[in-house]
Each structure stands twice: as structure tokens, then as C-alpha cells.
Design brief:
flat, 93 residues, Rossmann fold, alpha/beta, 3 strands, 24% helix
């Protein structure tokens, strides 16, 4: 039997008017669809630009999805070393 794959959605902070770039809502919808799909996955959402308090040593997720603003406001800017550690361990982004 296959091992359950863990997917973490990282939803950025609200940055636009109502109905535009709904990072949290879009991430919640996608995670729910995956969790209800019958696939052997467990999807979760970390919202409002927060960063998951997990490291490679904690057993990182199998995949991360970032749904956020880009350029100077991209949430990954402050976490490049952590992201690289995940990539080095095989986490798909």
C-alpha cells in the first residue's frame, strides 16, 4: 500500500480588494478537493503568510504549494534556506 503523501499549501497575506487574489480561500478549496478526492493524500493550509514551524528534521511535507503575491512581497524571500533544505530532501514545490 502506498504511503500517504502530505501537501502543505502556504497562503499569503491578504493584499488586494475583496474577490481578488483570495490566497487563503483558494488554498482551502484546493486542499479540501484533494482531501475529498479519494487519493492517498493529506492536504493542509497555513494561512496569512505564516510559515510552517517544521524543518527537514521534523519530517517535511512531500510537496508545498505557495499561493501568494510575488516579487518583493513573495513569502519565500525570508525562508530561502529552509526551502533549499526541503528541496535537497526531495520536497516538490
Amino acid at each position: 500500500m502506498a504511503e500517504t503523501k502530505e501537501i502543505v499549501f502556504l497562503a499569503g497575506k491578504k493584499s488586494h480588494g475583496y474577490g481578488k487574489h483570495e490566497h487563503r480561500a483558494g488554498s482551502l478549496l484546493l486542499a479540501r478537493c484533494l482531501n475529498e478526492s479519494g487519493l492517498d493524500v493529506k492536504a493542509s493550509v497555513v494561512a496569512e503568510g505564516a510559515w510552517p514551524g517544521r524543518s527537514v528534521e521534523d519530517g517535511g511535507p512531500d510537496a508545498i504549494v505557495m499561493y501568494c503575491d510575488g516579487y518583493n512581497q513573495h513569502m519565500a524571500k525570508e525562508h530561502q534556506a529552509e526551502i533549499q533544505a526541503w528541496v535537497d530532501e526531495g520536497v516538490v514545490g
